[in-house]
């Protein structure tokens, strides 16, 4: 059993108070400010159970989510079906994924980049994101800065 198999079933419970709508508002403000054209397609790298993807998909974006956990993706698929939101989910490693598709933007939220523990991993993830972006596409990600997390508390 992979760690994701058991974790996936508790993920949404653990983060039930996370304000995905506000985070997606923030993403949209960045897209509006820094995109040179309207954003329609978004690649969600490390999408987990899909809450950012679902929120953005419900707002009219075409979303493709990638995660290495089949268990989390299955939960995301069920949630998308239940909410009537069309999200394409793919199982894969964000450092190596090759979808042969280009997107207006890519996101990687909730410290997914912080899980890239070597410079090689981080560079590979950045290159994979870049390969999937249209010209002048945006890659938006967040990271956890340990001392701030300890001081400010999530």
Written description of the protein model:
With 154 residues, the chain is an alpha/beta fold. It has a single domain, classed as 3-Layer(aba) Sandwich (Rossmann fold), CATH 3.40.50.150. The protein has six helices and five strands, in the order ααβαβαββαβα. The chain has helices spanning 3-14, 20-34, 51-58, 70-83, 119-131, 146-152, and strands at 41-45, 62-67, 87-91, 103-108, 133-141. A five-stranded parallel β-sheet has the order 3-2-1-4-5. Strand 4, helix 5 and strand 5 (133-141) form a beta-alpha-beta unit. Helix 1 (3-14) packs parallel to helix 4 (70-83) and helix 2 (20-34) packs across helix 3. The radius of gyration is 15 Å and the shape is globular. The model has no long low-confidence stretch (mean pLDDT 92).
Helix and strand layout, with pairings?
Blueprint: H1 3-14, H2 20-34, E1 41-45, H3 51-58, E2 62-67, H4 70-83, E3 87-91, E4 103-108, H5 119-131, E5 133-141, H6 146-152
Parallel strand pairs: 1-2, 1-4, 2-3, 4-5
Helix pairs in contact: 1-4, 2-3
Protein traits:
Rossmann fold, 5 strands, alpha/beta, 6 helices
CATH architecture assignment: 3-Layer(aba) Sandwich
CATH level-4 homologous superfamily:
Vaccinia Virus protein VP39
Largest sheet composition = 5 strands, parallel
How many structural units, i.e. domains?
1
The ordered H/E elements are: HHEHEHEEHEH
Report the helical percentage.
40-55%
Brief account:
With about 150 residues, this protein is of the alpha/beta class.
